[in-house]
Amino acid sequence: MDIATLFGLIGAFVMIALSITAPAMFIDIPSVLIVVCGSLFVVLARSSMGEFLSAVSVAAKTFKNKLDKPEALIMQLVELATIARKDGMIALEGQDIPNKFMAKGISMLVDGSDGEFIKKSLGKDIASMKMRHSMGANIFSAMGEIAPAMGMIGTLVGLVQMLGNMSDPKSIGPAMAVALLTTLYGALLANVICIPLVQKLKNQSEIEASNCELIIEGIVFIHGGGNPRILTDYLSSFVAPKQRAKLEAAG
After folding, report:
1. What number of other Cβ atoms are within 10 A of residue 173's Cβ?
2. What digits encode the pLDDT tens for the residues 147-162?
3. For a Cys-Cys bond, which of 135, 143, 185, 226 suits 194, CB 3.0-4.6 Å?
4. By residue range, what is the domain housing residue 48?
C-alpha cells in the first residue's frame, strides 16, 4: 500500500477538523446531495458507464499499487539474461518473475517469438495501460472541475431560499447553511481529494510506463543474445543518477 496517499488525505482532513469547534454545524445533507451526488451524476453524463466504473479501480492504484523499482527490474533482467546465455531461452521457463509485464515478455521469448513482434506486442500493452490510466484520471479531473461549480449552484439555491423566506426567521439559518456549506464541500472535494488523486495517477502511470519500457529494452536485448555483463550499463538510463552507483556495485 502507498501510505503517502492515505496519510496525506487523512492528514488534510484532520488539519481541517482541528479548526472546527462545532462539527455538527458543518454537516448538511442537502449540501452533500447537491455537491457530491450532483457532481457524480454530471460526470456520469459526460462519460460512459464503463469509464465511470473503471475510474474506481484505477483510483485504487493510488492506495495499493506498489511500483517496482527500476534497479530491481534491471537486476532481474541481468539474471535472466545470464540464464538465457548459458542454458538457452528454454531455461527461462518456470523462472519466478513477480512482474506480470516482464513475465509475459519472457514467456514470448520462451515461445520463440520474433524480437520485433515482442517489442510491438508489449508496446501495445503499454499504450492500452496508459489509456486506462488516462481515462480514470480524466474522471477525477472532471470531478475536480465540476465540484466547485456544483458548490456555487448550491450557494445560489440557498440564497434564493433565504431571500424568498425573509419573513420566516427560522428558515434563514438552514438556507444560509446550504448556501455556504455547498461552496465548502465543493472546494474540499476538488482540492483535497480529486486534484491530488489526478496528479498521483498521472505520476504513477508515467513511472509504470517507464518501467515497462525498461523491460522491453531488456527483453529485446536478451532476444538478441547480448552479453549480460553490459546489460546494466545499457539500461542505466532508466535509473536515477543516485541509484546507478548502487546498481553497478550490486552488479
Report:
1. 9
2. 999 999 988 888 887 7
3. 143
4. 3-71+114-250
